[in-house]
Design goal:
alpha/beta
């Protein structure tokens, strides 16, 4: 049976100093599971250091918060996928904040996925309902069957859980048809309080937390009870 994943996306919330505090707090509570993988998506600045801190923890992997659409070369400010090989296991791509604030396009994300796969990194591609068709269409067939997907709607699952669950259950078959039944995570208002409920939804391969993961001990406690 394939492991399910729970992903902690720090975004740009934790400074290098707080990154160490988070890792210490998480390690103090976390208990490894054979059926679950924890993925921690951290900024490039602390990727190497966080990798050293979490390396002793079984079942924990690193993700970069994006990657360049281009290979190594004359691309000032870019982080090419080749530099992440052996450091990160995953790349988190197409997050709605990257699309909204940094104007990343469907084609940008497709190129990022290609660059990641070329360096044996595993892309996790974020989509909402509107992006499902164009983003899958932008991928080559041999890329589609190697991707992990994250459904990240604009309406978070916070106050109207029944409505949110119905939305997830309704779209999962559509995602499955377009992606050849590849794994799908859910990310949108996931917290330490509702994470267990969302985790149990049939058809999901895991959950992704943003603000809900910033307390390392609370996040580890959620992982332990999933």
């Amino acid at each position: 049976m394939q492991k399910k994943r729970v992903l902690a996306n720090w975004k740009a919330n934790l400074s290098p100093e707080k990154a160490r505090q988070w890792c210490d707090a998480f390690a103090g509570v976390y208990r490894p599971r054979t059926d679950l993988e924890v993925v921690v998506a951290v900024p490039f600045l602390v990727l190497e250091r966080v990798g050293e801190w979490i390396r002793p923890l079984a079942g924990v992997s690193l993700a970069s918060q994006g990657v360049s659409s281009y290979p190594q070369g004359n691309y000032t400010g870019a982080i090419p996928a080749a530099w992440l090989r052996g450091l990160a296991h995953y790349t988190l791509l197409g997050h709605r904040e990257r699309r909204r604030y940094f104007h990343e396009t469907v084609q940008d994300v497709a190129r990022q996925a290609y660059e990641s796969l070329a360096e044996d990194l595993h892309p996790i591609v974020c989509i909402d309902r509107e992006l499902l068709v164009p983003q899958t269409a932008a991928m080559a067939a041999d890329e589609l069957d190697r991707l992990i997907w994250a459904y990240t709607p604009d309406t978070p699952a916070t106050f109207e859980m029944a409505r949110s669950e119905a939305d997830i259950v309704a779209i999962l078959p559509q995602i499955a048809r377009k992606t050849d039944n590849r794994p799908v995570l859910y990310g949108g208002g996931v917290t330490a309080e509702n994470g267990s409920q969302l985790w149990r939804l049939a058809g999901l391969s895991g959950i992704m937390l943003g603000q809900g993961c910033l307390d390392g001990a609370a996040f580890a406690a959620l992982v332990n009870r999933l």
